[in-house]
Write a sequence for this structure.
């Protein structure tokens, strides 16, 4: 049990104020190996128009921070690679962070911390991921065979090694599948959602209804042009343009989703491809600034980062990470769930988001797991993920943390609301959350 009441402190950003100046993202595209865009390509196409519309030059940034879980083999520090290709110049330091699904949020938090402590004034931060380019690996047995082959010198030695090659060794190892499984507890992310669903009595129909709502809300947001100022079109080398999130399934129904079979716990599980986040490619950027930078470059702030929190929990319950990450922010700022005007809870799985809502409603969970006196209460779902989420638009793991912060700010502006919480679960048993305030 963790006593979050006793941990209450002032806002995490209690140094200099940290402002959100601008941001943009690519459309989120369904992964199709090999996709047309590497992670760096996505970051470039999202970053160039964003920087082009600023009153400062790219070389005037103090640093670039980029979250990414699986950069290409030749882009180990993808943040630096992208920074140089964006024209930020050799003197602008750039680095890469990885915190699984929250890598983009970690980039924002790292940037905000540096600004709050006076290390930097103007930072480009975000996340990118091309899950289409997740590696296909050799098995250990084939790697061993290749090593023996390289050491063999004579023809007889080569023939001897060749005779020991087993066809089974040639079976590829799918890197993406390995990345979606927790090596400590031996469960896939979907299996952890199954455990949460059973814990809180969440059924298949509830999950499917949540998925339908996600698609319906995304469809309405696209039709109403709510992403027009957030998305930048991107183009592949063949001249094809991509202007919208392409995971949208209009006209989803319970009957259609009921036909899908469980993916993770067969045959009796409830988590399917229809009520899970889509495997996706995409990038999201945010420009953060200090008050000094606002004055120096005559920048108009759109939002302010008020607080952030990271939490750890049982990896087999990783989907409840948003509860453990957001609750301390609420506690130390004296806020209830519905004192927040808008919530973005990343939709890794429908059952996972529903599990978070159920956990806040549970006296037992809030007392035993969060150290509270009673349940937090019921979160108003008319202030939650109004324009869809990972189930409908996808979840490029390195980018989603930055996307939900950027989109939360856009929703605040659209509705003339003040505060938003962006939060997500993290593979391995963690949660991340950020409290954002609109600057009128």
């Amino acid at each position: 049990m963790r006593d979050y009441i006793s941990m209450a402190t002032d806002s995490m950003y209690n140094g200099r104020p940290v402002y959100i100046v601008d941001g943009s993202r690519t459309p989120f595209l369904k992964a199709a190996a090999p996709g047309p865009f590497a992670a760096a390509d996505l970051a470039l196409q999202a970053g160039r128009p964003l920087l082009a519309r600023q009153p400062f030059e790219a070389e005037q940034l103090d640093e670039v921070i980029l979250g990414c879980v699986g950069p290409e083999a030749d882009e180990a520090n993808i943040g630096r690679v992208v920074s140089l290709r964006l024209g930020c110049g050799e003197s602008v330091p750039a680095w890469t962070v990885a915190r699984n699904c929250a890598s983009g949020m970690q980039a924002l938090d790292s940037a905000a911390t540096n600004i709050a402590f006076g290390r930097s004034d103007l930072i480009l931060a975000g996340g990118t991921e091309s899950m289409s380019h997740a590696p296909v690996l050799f098995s250990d047995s084939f790697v061993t065979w290749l090593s023996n082959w390289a050491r063999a010198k004579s023809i007889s030695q080569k023939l001897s090694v060749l005779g020991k090659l087993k066809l089974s060794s040639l079976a590829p190892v799918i890197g993406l599948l390995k990345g979606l499984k927790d090596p400590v507890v031996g469960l896939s992310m979907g299996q952890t959602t199954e455990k949460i669903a059973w814990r809180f009595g969440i059924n298949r129909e509830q999950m499917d209804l949540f998925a339908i709502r996600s698609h319906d809300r995304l469809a309405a947001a696209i039709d109403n042009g709510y992403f027009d100022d957030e998305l930048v079109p991107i183009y592949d080398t063949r001249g094809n343009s991509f202007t919208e999130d392409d995971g949208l399934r209009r006209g989803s129904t319970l009957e259609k989703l009921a036909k899908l079979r469980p993916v993770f716990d067969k045959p009796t599980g409830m988590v399917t491809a229809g009520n899970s986040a889509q495997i996706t490619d995409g990038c999201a950027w945010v420009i953060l600034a200090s008050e000094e930078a606002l004055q120096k470059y005559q920048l108009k702030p759109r939002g302010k980062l008020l607080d952030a929190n990271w939490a750890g929990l049982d990896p087999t319950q990783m989907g409840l990470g948003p509860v453990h990450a957001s609750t301390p922010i609420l506690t130390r700022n004296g806020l209830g769930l519905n004192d927040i005007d808008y919530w973005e809870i990343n939709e890794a799985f429908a059952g996972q988001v529903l599990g978070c809502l159920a956990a806040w409603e549970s006296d037992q969970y809030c007392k035993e797991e969060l150290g509270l006196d009673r349940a937090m209460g019921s979160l108003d779902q008319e202030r939650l993920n109004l324009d869809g989420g990972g189930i409908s638009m996808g979840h490029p793991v390195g980018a989603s943390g930055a996307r939900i912060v950027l989109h939360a700010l856009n929703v605040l502006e659209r509705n003339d609301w003040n505060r938003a919480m962006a939060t997500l679960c993290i593979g391995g048993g963690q949660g991340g959350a950020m409290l954002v305030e609109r600057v009128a």
In short: Confidence is low (pLDDT under 50) at residues 1-11. The two ends are 40 Å apart (CA to CA). DSSP finds 15 helices and 14 strands in the chain. Residues 218 and 236 are 24 Å apart (CA to CA).
